[in-house]
Here is the input.
Amino acid sequence: MKKKPKIFISGAAGFLGSHLAEAFIAEEYKVAGCDNLIGGYLDNVPAEVEFYQYDLNYHNSIVKITKDCGIIFHCAATAYEGLSVFSPFFVTKNIVQSSVSLITAAIANKAHRFVFCSSMARYGTQDKVPFTEDMIPKPQDPYGIGKYSSELFLRNLCNTHGMDFVIAVPHNIIGPRQKYDDPYRNVASIMINLMMQGRQPIIYGDGEQKRCFSFIQDDIDILFKLAFEREAVGEVINIGPDDEFITINQLAGTIADIIGFNLDPVYEKSRPQEVYLANCSADKARRLFDYSPKIRLRDGLRTMVEHIKARGVKPFKYHIDLEIINKNTPDTWKIRKF
Here is the structure.
């Protein structure tokens, strides 16, 4: 019987990484992982994970803890798309530099495959939606630029040194364990936390910008496949449902209906460089891997409400400094309106 490869997951205390670790443990894989806890909770980490509270930018340490790991999942990211316009150094260091650190360690340790979790921010504003993998990326904020730059580093280094790679593009993942006291990201979690405190949600712009939201399990199932399927090697694969394309206003309305909240949103000025229409086609994943998302948006949001209710609402923590403060900086962050 062929020995199962050891799995390494960056961001193992985060939302995506902890669920992925749980999925591999359930299939009796050994899992190691790290997290610097900027965007995760320590109690997210499954007990069976060989866990290190390390920052990916400490390269020598990362080389040591990825030794003997055959498959590397890079889930860790300071996924602060809007904030990246105002804290570009912090976000870029923890996207580009940290990615190169982990890619280099994986190659040095002769890992078989590297699965990079990119972002739909790589696409920017395109002429049509949904976005397909053959579109030329046009990232329009530092976060998206960092993610796409990391993809280019990955391709270059893997092609040079002979490590298989896959670029997965999840979008707007939601579900239990997502950080909900973070004022800079996770719109659905922010809205739930606010409404459950009896506070109105804050919406940027007119609220008519549109997104698709992806329940966590609909990403985990296909990420598991991307670790092993030969057809995935060297490919960019969008993952997440593409058929519930809704406005932020509609998102707020659905959450309010689930909670039983009297909705009267507070509207703030639009954030610079925000993509107005963003949705990724899942057709390639359907064709190659028989991808079929199972969780509808309302059901996923209801699960999140139940999870946050069980954990208890929390005050928002402004845990990242603004590097640029000017007239473009949202008041939600500048004067801490959350």
